[in-house]
Design a protein that fits this description.
Distance between the termini: 141 Å
Number of strands: 31
Structural class: mainly beta
Strand content: 35-45%
Largest sheet: 9 strands, antiparallel
Radius of gyration: 43 Å
Length: 501
């Protein structure tokens, strides 16, 4: 039997055994065909990143400001035009400072090997411009799973193949001004105010508040990031506010910050030429804050910026030595005011005054001549109508008066002048309607030194209507009306200190 015939026979035998559900057992194999079993299982090689490498990577996380440069997932890929608006700063204490376009947030993070977990915490809720990726950015971060570095960039893979975020180091100090940016003039005259502050003999308001608008009011503006690390925003090419600081004994700290409803930035140039910059006081308060210990004597130039060239935000620049900051300073507490709706501007017709009222007090005869002078009449001032709201051609007419005149008299006779004044222990006003239809009005005879009103007029024959007003619709003031031709006659002084007492 040749070898080919033997091979075919063996194949047919195996097929027959299979059809009968039988296979040859290991004992049926000739001893010479027995294969020895391995004495040990094969080892699987496990490659782990050296501990030193992971430590270096963690240091790279916390040592850089990372700007979101691009994103890739199975559906699409894109690069960001404004990566500086979406940044991460990993802190050594396990927190992250997040800038998400017009919003900021604080997050916590944990690292285990290459694993990265991010939990986003408190976040501002500003409405960013159309096209903003603020919400997407924060949402992606919440799904972080793995991080790695490649060619200096940070990559964060998201859970369940959700995509990959790419971050590049953001070095603000190397950013140059945007094309078309204006040149900055640190020594130029300010846009809003020049102040003299400090000094032991100079009285200065502490805190000092200046009404400002952050951003570029006109012109292309200047990219503040060119001025140094931490400087950001588009600022005007000349200072918004300049203050000259004089040495002030016992004062060793100055705080400079803004109060606004936007997200301004602050650049402050000191007398030595040092540039100080601030963006946000903290992630929940978007106003900048700079604190100077041992302020130098000399000129300080403040520039207020915004993150868009056409974004101009109103607000206040605050300069103070007190323990204040944008989070603690509340203007409503510093200047508590109650707005009385009755005092709001409301144009009223002259018809509101009942000039022909029969309830008005008059002299016994109704008439008055030079022989009746000096004439005096006790009256009560006040009412519900704001004289300041009535359409008159005299802006001095003020106070709250009744619809009916407080006093009326018919004048006849010749004198050079008629003098009317009202004396009271409360602040009052005097409003006189002459026969020719003109109003003669007064509030205070001599400012705070005499709050009693005084009116002088050249008389003509006819009817005079007099309204004596108070400074609240809830207050009525009793006093004495005097009518005289003596030009030297003045009311008894009523000072602001008298009112306080």
């Amino acid at each position: 039997m040749n070898k080919t015939t033997l091979f075919i026979f063996l194949i047919m035998a195996l097929l027959f055994a299979a059809c009968n559900g039988e296979f040859a057992t290991p004992t049926d194999v000739p001893p010479t065909e027995t294969l020895s079993e391995p004495t040990t299982e094969p080892e699987t090689e496990v490659i782990e990143a050296p501990a030193e490498s992971v430590s270096v990577d963690i240091e790279m996380l916390a040592g850089t400001t990372w700007a979101w440069a691009g994103f890739t997932d199975p559906m699409h890929q894109f690069d960001l035009d404004n990566p500086e608006n979406y940044t991460l700063i990993f802190q050594d204490d396990g927190t992250i400072n997040i800038k998400a376009d017009c919003n900021t947030a604080i997050a916590s993070y944990t690292v285990e090997g290459r694993g990265l977990s991010i939990q986003v915490g408190p976040m501002t809720m500003a409405a960013c411009p159309e096209g903003s990726l603020s919400d997407d950015f924060v949402q992606y971060l919440g799904f972080a799973a793995i991080y790695f570095f490649e060619e200096g960039d940070l990559f964060i893979d998201l859970m369940a193949d959700g995509g990959t975020m790419r971050f590049s180091p953001y070095e603000e100090s190397t950013v140059t001004s945007a094309p078309g940016s204006a040149d900055i003039n640190l020594d130029a005259e300010p846009l809003f105010a020049t102040l003299a502050l400090g000094g032991g003999e100079t009285l200065w308001l502490d805190p000092t508040l200046v009404s400002i608008r952050s951003g570029t009011v006109e012109g292309p503006g200047f990219d503040a990031s060119a001025l140094g690390e931490g400087c950001t925003g588009i600022i005007p090419s000349q200072p918004d506010v300049v203050f000259n600081w004089e040495e002030h004994a016992g004062l060793d700290t100055l705080k400079i910050f803004t109060l606004s409803l936007g997200d301004p930035t602050l650049v402050l140039v000191t007398p030595s030429g040092e540039v100080l910059c601030s963006d946000d006081f903290n992630p929940l308060v978007l106003d900048p804050f700079i604190e100077i210990t041992g302020p130098q004597v000399g000129r300080y130039a403040a520039f207020l910026g915004s993150f868009e060239r056409d974004a101009v935000e109103p607000g206040f620049l605050v300069i103070t030595s007190h323990d204040l900051n944008p989070a603690s300073m509340d203007l409503s507490q510093m200047f508590p005011r109650h707005i009385d709706p009755r005092a709001l501007g409301e144009t009223l017709s002259l018809d509101m005054l009942e000039i022909e009222s029969t309830e008005t007090i008059e002299p016994a005869s109704g008439n008055m001549t030079p022989g009746d002078l000096a004439y005096q009449q006790e009256l009560t001032a006040g009412g519900e109508i704001g004289m300041f709201n009535i359409e008159l051609e005299n802006q001095l007419c003020t106070g709250f008066v009744s619809a009916a005149p407080t006093f009326r008299f018919d004048w006849s006779g010749a004198v050079e002048q008629l003098i009317l004044f009202f004396e009271s222990d409360m602040d009052t006003t005097l409003n006189v309607l002459a026969p020719d239809g003109t109003f003669h009005c007064d509030d205070d005879y001599h400012g705070s030194e005499n709050l009693n009103p005084w009116v002088s007029l050249i008389p003509s024959e006819g009817t005079y209507n007099v309204w004596v007003g108070s400074f609240s619709p809830d207050i009525q003031a009793s006093g004495m009306l005097t009518i005289t031709s003596d030009t030297n006659a003045t009311p008894t002084p009523l000072t602001s200190q008298d009112l306080e007492n």
